Amino acid sequence: MADLFDGIVMAEQRFHGEGYQEGLAEGSHAGMDEGRRHGALHGARMGSEIGCYLGFALTWHCLLQKCTDPKNSKKLRALDSLIGMIQKFPYEDPTYDKLQEDLEKIRGKFKQSLHRRTSFTEEDTGRGETALAPEAT
């Protein structure tokens, strides 16, 4: 009779252990899938944000290089710095421990460059119009 109860008690423990292992494996798999989706989404957002900053910096750098006004040198240096920071950003290494810190520095440099851009005038582009908005037609 004791063997009958031992089998029942042991079966409960065995089923509990098997259920735990199956749940752990399924949860790990689901967590990996969710982590991949989350990483892809946020990585794409970060890449889009940095791409926007780079496009801004390259465009204004190109516009300002064509002008010979010495006042543009500070603006060009700020844009050069932003471009350099973006080019050094470790896109391929999600384990980089200063990823968020470097991204914040890029955001700050972008805001600095954006602030400098708001002071651009028609002399900056040499096109006879303000740099912020096209001429009204």
How would you describe what is shown here?
- This protein is mainly α and 137 residues long.
- 76% of the residues lie in helices and 0% in strands.
- The chain is built from four helices and no strands.
- Helix 1 packs parallel to helix 3 and helix 2 runs antiparallel to helix 3.
- The longest helix has 64 residues.
- The chain starts with a helix and ends in a 12-residue tail after the last helix.
- The C terminus is likely disordered.
Pick out its properties.
137 residues; mainly alpha; 4 helices; 0% strand
Separation of termini? 100 Å
Mean pLDDT: 81
Overall strand count:
0
Fraction of residues in helix: over 70%
Q: What's the SSE pattern?
A: HHHH
Please work out how many helical segments DSSP would assign: 4
Sheet with most strands: none
- Rg on CA atoms, Å: 29 Å
Strand content: under 5%
The coarse overall form would be rod-shaped
- Unreliable sequence segments: 129-137
Going by helix content, strand content and strand pairing, the class is: mainly alpha
What can be said about this structure in brief?
The chain is mainly α. Helix content is 76%, strand content 0%.
